Amino acid sequence: MVAAGAVVVTVVAYLVFRTEGAADSSDAAAFRFFDRVRDWVDANRDSSPFFLYGFNYVRLGVRLLVDGVYGALTGLGFAGLVAAVAAIGAVLAGWRTGLLALGGFLAFGVLGLWEQSVDTLVLTVSAVLLSVLIGVPLGILAARVRWVGATLRPVLDVMQIMPTFAYLAPMTLLFLIGEPAAVIATMIYAVPATIRITALGISEVSPTAVEAATALGSTRWQLLGKVRLPMARTTIALAVNQTIMLALSMVVITALIDAPGLGQNIVSALQRVNVGAAFDAGLAIVILAVVLDRITTNAARRTRVHRTARQRRLRWVGAGVALAVVVVAAVVRIDPDDLPGYSFAGPVNDLVGWIELHWFDVTEGLKNGISAGVLDPLETVLVTTPWWLFVAAVAAFGTLISGWRAALIAALASAGIAGLGLWQHSMQTLATVLVAIVLTMTIGVAVGVFCARHDRLATGIRPLLDAAQTMPSFVYLLPAVALFGASRFTAIVAAVIFAVPPVVRLVERGLRDVPPTVVEAALSAGSTPRQLLWKVQLPMARGGLLLAANQGIVMVLAMVVVGGLVGAGALGYDVVAGFSQRELFGRGLAAGLAIVLLGIVLDRLTQGFHHTKGPRR
Amino acid sequence: MRTLRTAAAAALIVTLTACGGATSGAGEDEPSAGAKGTVNLAINPWVGYEANAAVIAHLLEKKMGYTVEKKDLKEEIAWQGFETGEVDAIVENWGHPDLKKTYIEDKKVAVEVGPTGNQGTIGWYVPQWMADKYPDITDWKNLNKYADLFKTSESKGKGQFLAGDPSFVTNDEALVSNLKLNYTVVYSGSEAAIIKAAQQASAQTKPLLFYFYEPQWLFAQEKYVRVKLPEYKEGCDADTKKVACDYPDYVLDKIASKKFADANSTAYQFIKNFTWSNDDQNLVSDYITNQGMSAEKAAEKWVTEHEATWKPWIPAGS
């Protein structure tokens, strides 16, 4: 009743107060402020103590770390590094994973991308080392000290939603061009996952175990070192795994500030409009991601298994043999150029060329239909809504859905967007983002449900999901532009490809976690498969579905800026332009913040569904 | 190289702690002050630039014995590199009076090193088939007549004008409003996106009006025709909001860091001497993009075939 009233009031208010939707000013106070900060840093880099004793040392330290990791990895030589990775995989995660690692790393040589792959690995490993060094202690603190956790949460939110492009330019301002800035930018993107998952692991340690240890007279440090950390070991391994995946998706973008590696190949292939060449490099990244993912997940899984003394001894023998193999391989120098080479560039270019030529009419019709039918009307409504009405609506509906606390934050965030002076662009971006989220959820839930019901399909589709998630979006942007033109819809397509995989995974896991006894009970009570899905499985998997929606929102927002590169305009373009042009620096940074604020609004408005039990009437 | 640098960085940290702070140059490669050192070339993200840089790097390395470090950077960030000593030279600069003012006049960390010999043209283009089918479309006065052809899902009921990479100099929005054209400027957001759109406009014979420039390798594949805007006159683009004239022709030039120029090495003199024609650059760009050569291979091929062109660039006594 209240909800219906709120809807009616909002609609009437919109019809009365709707505006023309004037363009954003090119010179807002927020832009000027960021420009002034930039000028100050430029002028004081070699004189201010902040730099002389702070940032410049951070840069030097990270430089040392990168050079150290580089020395360690390249010192082994081609054969040595391949053998070492395979050995680590075999010892920690089983011989199957070892074989996978062996094949994967050899593939870098076959693709002719060995050096670039190693450079990418060096940056990833450096960023992950830093993330773990900083993230794990912070995660423990966040779990154990209430106020630390509470303070960190919003900071981590900002770090995760803030588009990478928006902080690349400030990174070069503080840490100059090159590897240190790249590693730090990557770390900023990846460390929230380390902190969050570690905190989760520590806080989930069973209180009975802690009580028992306390009763036996453990000190606080003993509790941490002997009880909490060992019991949270698998979760911390998951944290490392997620950190690696996030870092890998970021190091590609840092090619734009002269970080070496596969990203450089992708960026230069993009300039030459050579999708095939970008595909080779993209494939190398997917392989690297899969190898690192399998090693860390399988290693984490194996730590749970308890071994007999004999098995343990066998393991030591295995490790010894592996070490010997690595040493031999490191001594035998093999040049990766000696491997037979293969490139997918030719076939991929032919295929993409054919698709671009023949599918165009269909894809253009699809784009025009969705743009005119859904996107334009939604955008018109959002853009012509006066900002105060939008804030009021967010507050009202937020209170109904998520309670007054979340509503207050959401309303403040939307007022903040207005304050940044980018209202029109934010509303245009919001329209695109909403359509992308709806499409992502529709596709993701449908595929997730299918996967949960058909085991074979799920196994078949998993590598595809892995690839879609780790393949850098730059690779498939150009075919998308060819098919859909430089448009908002192209941005939506890119966002959907990127965001669907995690949604599918979370939905599938949610459905599979429904206790089998419940399913059996429903079946024996005579439920049809359809009833089982709608009345039992989906409602019971509510938690998983909501987490999926939340992740979908975050991932779609992360692609807003990439959308700016392919004609979506609005905030994404502002960020890209701010990165490219000196006069637009402040505006770009403001646009990055506006994206964060949009993320906070969406997150707070949806989080209410987590807490309310059952649908409201 | 790397291990040396690590040791140097470590030593720097130690010594600098003793004597008060690290400056922005600390721990980075020193620019080549003396002869036969390393030259740090910025590589801006377009193929024509890469052609210049590839030939310069090839000659510096193979004929003059220097080491060349190529750094892939966007223009803005490359200029920042002059200040920190990470970049010695930019070898194809399109105008950028604002950057020149900041880094050459105010900060005095960079200097102009003369033209590259390439003439840059920026303008509005349509695919060749449109110029054939609608001969009068190449005059801006007729653009409104054809606005309906250019409608897309993004253009809000008007004709679409597709603008380019945000780092390029553009006056398109001002032009559309000051010339009272019934068009909306849509930002493609990247050079790659605009090239792809242009290729599709030719392949699918779809209408497209877009921002483009020469020298550009795409012209070796497809023909595009420039739309005449009101003629450029000195100063007609002074107020960016009131521009109602075409883009000027750009004399593309080279910029070097002050330190690199002051050292006056043979590498600097060589870069100063470097000039070539649009045809030369298009040829090397064509090798790189349409014939699938690496930049290094393309430069090598051009150098073996054009000795008479590059011989005079090499300073005496090197």
TrEMBL record, chain B:
Keywords, ordered alphabetically: Signal
Please name the InterPro entries in this protein's record: ABC_Gly_betaine_transp_sub-bd
Q: Which residues form the signal peptide?
A: 1-20
The ABC-type glycine betaine transport system substrate-binding domain extends over 38-304
Name of the protein: ABC transporter substrate-binding protein
Provenance organism: Paractinoplanes aksuensis
